[in-house]
Amino acid sequence: MPEVAMAESTRLVPSLDLLKGFEAAARHLNFTHAADELFITQSAVSRQIKLLEDRLGVSLFVRQPKGLRLTDQGEQLYRAVSSALRQVNDAMERLARRDEAQPVIVTSTLGFSALWLIPRLVIFQKANPDVEIRISANDRVLNLDRERIDVSIRYCQADAPPPSAVWLFDETLLPVCSPALAEASGKQLREPADLRHHVLLHLYDPDNPSPWMSWRRWLEAFDLTDLKPAGSATFNYFDQVSRAALAGQGVALGRMPLVQDLLQDGSLIAPFPRAVPTGRGYCVVQAGFSRGRPEVDRFVEWIIAETKAATRDPISVVDARKTARKERRRDRPRI
After folding, report:
1. pLDDT tens digits for 112-157?
2. Whether 68 and 144 share a structural domain
3. Are residues 123 and 244 in the same domain?
4. If we measure between CA atoms, which residue out of 205, 201, 165, 143 comes closest to residue 285?
5. Beta strands in the chain (DSSP E)
6. Are residues 310 and 217 in the same domain?
7. What range defines the domain where residue 59 resides?
8. Whole-model pTM above 0.85?
């Protein structure tokens, strides 16, 4: 009978306390840290592990002078228990909050969040006033399930996106600067060789090196490896590079699509439309636990549609320069 079979199959299943104690000890590989997390004593965790090992008839940990190590059997049990506890926790959260409006938590890089995503959020919010969006800008790749993040817009290699990711757009680099700098007397930027008259703004983060975004790579693409600029300034975040370019401090390598809006409104111009692909770009990943939440699905659909529109109607860097000139002429006082 099914009831008898179910009873037989659950005889070996330990209590939830034993499983929680084992999962915490396996995750920390330290009984003391597990005990602190569970608000019990270290000896209580040790007894729980001993009971579990006796019940299963296998050793789950190897005790070493410098700490613990999971045995093969311990690794197998940890994967199963960790997954099961997470599913139980997710189900309980959904049931407990079924009548509450939950925010959609989105993570992306600092540059993408500041320059592309946040300026466009008003479009989504006008169409979805009932949905709260929380932005968690971070240049680290976060584990969505562990951090309880619904959506990630990730920067990655174009040929190696994460599983289940939807590709949004490729990244290209092209020189950008303020309109005033491009037209400075005696320092006009008519062709790439004119960069020798200007300060080049560099992006360099020793904790996260990205040589594909270097001026050297761009100059090599146009056979200008011997070019000597008037000076250099280096920053470790792209939004800092962008601010320096906006302030007229030099010429930056603009990352499309991040500088698209700044080119569109004439705050920056691209003096020569020569873009170099980086082989990287942006994709969107939705956490497994958030699939089926209407508000999260709506946000992901909106991001995909918004990036398609940007790709379908790209800014013409030449037109942007002409537009900026017209705006400056229009704003001059008439005598």
Report:
1. 999 999 999 999 999 999 999 999 988 888 888 888 899 999 999 9
2. no
3. yes
4. 165
5. 61-64, 67-70, 104-108, 133-137, 151-157, 166-176, 199-203, 231-235, 251-256, 276-286
6. yes
7. 2-96
8. no
